[in-house]
TrEMBL record:
SMART domains: Elp3. The lineage of its organism: Bacteria, Pseudomonadati, Pseudomonadota, Gammaproteobacteria, Lysobacterales. This is Heme chaperone HemW. PANTHER family: COPROPORPHYRINIGEN III OXIDASE (PTHR13932), RADICAL S-ADENOSYL METHIONINE DOMAIN-CONTAINING PROTEIN 1, MITOCHONDRIAL (PTHR13932:SF5). Residues 5-242 form the Radical SAM core domain. InterPro entries: Aldolase_TIM, Coproporphyrinogen-III_oxidase, Elp3/MiaA/NifB-like_rSAM, HemN_C, HemW-like, rSAM, rSAM_sf.
Length: 396
């Protein structure tokens, strides 16, 4: 039997901006506290050189979404965002109506800034709100209060942005169920198109991991908040489509959906990760760039800026695919699995059957979706798709 062909899925472009005004104590993203003037003009030169270097990997392909993530991309002056987008559009074909998102910290909102982003081509903003409770915001080390957060969202709406996401976190230090509910009510009042609702996690190598904050809600309290907030979001017209993502009809985030569907993405910028299907080699390549902004600025556009390349062997692909696809409420189709991994559906038949028997997944013809139970135990379900471990070699 010949193996099915690996078909390049839709392509996205991710652009990382690695600086913030202040480092939040819970955050493990590649973000560095700003010290003095930031070299944004030089950074855009580096981004375009980086893009040039990766272009042969995506020759002739169309970009369906662009995402400026961080760090804090809203620190970038609109003129530099515009210069980057113009440079990118002269090197790559952008799909008509291409979704272009920029992450914004409400503490960086200024008059004129959002108009500038819109004029540059940005058509979606994602605000890091986290909470509307000033005590919670302070304990999270945020640079803005709740009033500033609301004002920033309104400024963006006045500038014509109607496709807005608000990031909220729950299970925060000192937070009660009533406070988590109140955060959602304040969010709904702003009528965003999309809400991302994340449970606070203590990530390794963060200040919070080293010194956990006091009065963290326990697991049961966190679970109660999640359940109650899911209900409130549904009642307010936000349909859950992924573990933490909720959208009004037609407003799901196309960029993140492409990740979760095991799509392709070019990763440009300090520490950015990319995943690309190389049709001619029948290979899947993961590539990441140097994390440190200084080193990245000096080397972008050369092989030295590449932090690493990793080819994803066929045995690893089912796990990688599930790690993404099983986050989606709608799951995936076996046709999608075969096209984007180059593997026949039979290669996962026994793991699938096992997960169905345990009540974690349900299959309907070509479609596979996690059940309510499966969504509670996502990690256990995904583990079923790990390739067989190498036999252990005894120590000499
Ligand atoms: C790169 S940040 C968004 C933009 C901007 N940097 C900001 O914070 O305003 C992405 C989002 O991930 C979420 N996040 C970051 N660290 C987290 C953690 N430890 N636990 C849960 N969510 C987290 C936050 O909601 C944050 O807004
Ligand atoms: S502003 Fe955002 S990216 Fe920066 S440290 Fe805070 S959470 Fe992380």
């Amino acid at each position: 039997m010949t193996a099915p062909a690996l078909t390049p899925p839709p392509l996205s472009l991710y652009v990382h901006v690695p600086w913030c005004v202040r480092k939040c104590p819970y955050c493990d993203f590649n973000s560095h506290e700003r010290r003095g003037e930031l070299p944004f003009a030089q950074y855009v030169d580096a981004l375009l050189a980086d893009l040039d270097h990766d272009l042969p990997l995506v020759w002739g392909r169309t970009v369906h979404t662009v995402f400026f993530g961080g760090g804090t991309p809203s620190l970038m002056p609109p003129e530099q965002i515009e210069r980057f987008l113009q440079g990118a559009a002269s090197r790559l074909r952008f799909a008509p109506g291409c979704e272009i998102t920029l992450e914004a910290n409400p503490g960086t909102a200024e008059h004129g800034r959002f108009e500038g982003y819109r004029a540059a081509g940005v058509n979606r903003l994602s605000f890091g709100i986290q909470s509307f409770d000033d005590g919670c915001l302070q304990r999270l080390g945020r640079i803005h209060d709740s009033r500033e957060a609301e004002a920033a969202v309104k400024l963006a709406q006045d500038a014509g942005f109607d496709n807005l996401n608000l990031d909220l976190m729950y299970a925060l230090p000192g937070q009660t169920l009533a406070m988590a509910e109140h955060d959602l009510e304040r969010a709904f009042a702003l009528q965003p198109a999309h809400v991302s609702h994340y449970q606070l996690t203590l990530e390794p190598n963060t200040v919070f991991a080293a010194r956990p904050p006091e009065h963290l809600p326990d697991d049961d309290a966190g679970w109660d908040m999640q359940e109650r907030c899911q209900t409130m979001l549904a009642q307010a017209g936000y349909a859950q489509y992924e573990v933490s993502a909720y959208a009004q009809p037609g407003r799901r985030c196309a960029h993140n959906l492409n990740y979760w569907r095991y799509g392709d993405y070019l990763g440009i910028g300090a520490g950015a990760h990319g995943k690309l299907t190389l049709g001619h080699e029948q290979a899947i390549l993961r590539r990441w760039k140097h994390k440190h902004p200084g080193k990245y600025l000096q080397t972008a556009g050369t092989a030295e800026a590449i932090g690493g390349d990793d080819r994803i062997e066929p045995a690893r692909r089912p796990f990688e695919f599930m790690l993404n696809a099983l986050r989606l409420v709608d799951g995936f189709t076996l046709t999608q699995f075969t096209r984007s991994t180059g593997l026949p559906a039979e290669s996962i038949a026994s793991a699938l059957a096992d997960a169905v028997r345990r009540g974690w997944l349900e299959c309907d013809g070509d479609a596979v979706r996690p059940t309510e139970l499966g969504r509670r135990f996502t990690n256990d379900v995904i583990e079923r798709f790990l390739d067989e471990p190498e036999p252990e070699v005894p120590e000499p």
